[in-house]
């Protein structure tokens, strides 16, 4: 009798696993898999609220209040729906859906803080302040160089195509267009202009970068922000700790980090904090390790030319 029950349990467990496998899901032992009403299923993150539940169109308008002004350089390009559509592709992997609602809001503020700072045309005396001008650009206006590394065999420059900065967290250089294009399944090497023609793809490329480690065995910006990442001894001796500061390290390395308290670094931080305030979370919830002024880069620029 006991053997029968055990066998039955075994069969039940096996058929549940088979059903999950048939549905194309990967399950880790002990992880709850959820299937809620929103466009998300088969991931434990789908048990949580979606970004569109706690970040509404009116809030996007407040964060990027001047993006359609006459002075803006990408008027009528960026919009809330493009962000939400792109974000939905990454929510099953934990973007904006890791932890509770406050962590979700903080992650959205952090990601958009990078976007706002990198696409800003704000300056200190600008109406609304220098952080009120995010999403002013969607591409670099006067490229100072061609951003082509001819020696790259995997992603060679295409004749007549230019690889200047484009997108929500701008991408530069042929190899980076190649890498990100592969990541979002778009031929960005031949068609980098997609990132200045299609706001959904521009956000998708930026969120892909946020969610993806630059190198194997390294954390992504998402990982260092939401607490998925535990620093090693090497990390702590390089002053790298979880928090917003380390997201700048992942994305920009020593172009921003390890240079002391610079205007460039503080400009990014001030966008993140401004957005926390506007979203009602408040800058007092910025989290530990906000800056990266004494962090050693995960990937020193002397060793590679990524991004
Ligand atoms: C932007 O790209 C997405 C994904 O390829 C596509 O579904 C959408 O129609 C495009 N939008 C525009 C305005 O071309
Ligand atoms: C730690 O840093 C040292 C010196 O830079 C390096 O040789 C070693 O590979 C690093 N270890 C890990 C686990 O990254």
Structure, explained:
This protein is mainly α and 307 residues long. It folds into two domains: 34-137 and 213-307, Orthogonal Bundle (Lysozyme); 138-197, Endochitinase, domain 2 (2-Layer Sandwich), CATH 3.30.20. Helix content is 41%, strand content 2%. The chain has twelve helices and two strands. It has helices at 2-22, 51-54, 57-63, 80-90, 101-118, 174-184, 194-197, 199-211, 221-226, 233-237, 244-252, 263-278; strands at 34-35, 41-43. Strands 1-2 form a two-stranded antiparallel sheet. Strand 1 and strand 2 (41-43) form a beta hairpin. The longest helix has 21 residues, at 2-22. Mean pLDDT is 89; it is low at 1-27. One 2-acetamido-2-deoxy-beta-D-glucopyranose binds next to loops. Residues 59-292 form the Glycoside hydrolase family 19 catalytic domain. Residues 1-18 form the signal peptide. It catalyses: Random endo-hydrolysis of N-acetyl-beta-D-glucosaminide (1->4)-beta-linkages in chitin and chitodextrins. One of its GO terms (molecular function) is endochitinase activity.
